[in-house]
Each structure stands twice: as structure tokens, then as C-alpha cells.
Specification:
The chain is α+β, with helices and mostly antiparallel strands. The protein is built from five helices and three strands; from the N terminus they run ααβααββα. Helix 2 crosses helix 4. It is elongated and about 45 Å long.
């Protein structure tokens, strides 16, 4: 994972609502935007924007079914991110 991707993920996770949305997907499994918006005090359009940022960071994937978009957590991205942070701050400079 390169430094630019690490920074993109860090920015995606820095927003409390986005962090909580990702946590809800990670713990609850695949969910659609509308259902996620109901879990938090946000409008569906705002939730959709948060999900777009999470998807661009590679933390979730999106699957379309009819008019609904379903989002799934990608744990491998989070694992790679954690490893990249560890290497960046504890030695082994593998982050470019």
C-alpha cells in the first residue's frame, strides 16, 4: 500500500460519522444506504456521500440490485492499512 492510499484511508476514517458507518457495515454485514441512514442522524444523500468516500478509499465495495446499492466491508484493506501504519511508524519503510 502506497503512502497516498494510506492518507486517503486516514482521511476517510477521520470523520466520526463515516467511521461509525463503516463500523456498522463491518459488524452488521452488507447493508444498503437507506438502512444505514436510518441508523444515524443523517439524510440518505449524506450517507451516500460518506459511502462514496469509503468506497474510493477501498474500505467498502458496492453492489447494485435494482434501485438499491448494497455496501460490504473489505477487511483486507483495513489489515493492509494497519500494516502500512505499523511499518511507517515503527520502522520498515515500505510505505512509498
Amino acid at each position: 500500500m502506497n503512502q497516498q492510499h494510506v492518507i486517503k484511508i486516514t482521511k476517510a476514517l477521520s470523520d466520526r460519522t463515516r467511521f461509525n458507518v463503516l463500523q456498522a457495515i463491518a459488524t452488521g454485514g452488507e447493508q444498503c444506504c437507506g438502512d444505514l441512514a436510518k441508523q444515524f442522524p443523517i439524510k440518505q444523500a449524506t450517507c451516500s456521500q460518506h459511502l462514496k468516500i469509503l468506497a474510493e478509499a477501498g474500505l467498502v465495495t458496492m453492489r447494485r440490485e435494482g434501485q438499491f446499492n448494497y455496501y460490504t466491508f473489505i477487511p483486507d484493506t483495513l489489515s493492509a492499512y494497519c500494516q502500512a501504519l505499523e511499518h511507517a511508524f515503527l520502522g520498515s519503510p515500505t510505505v512509498n
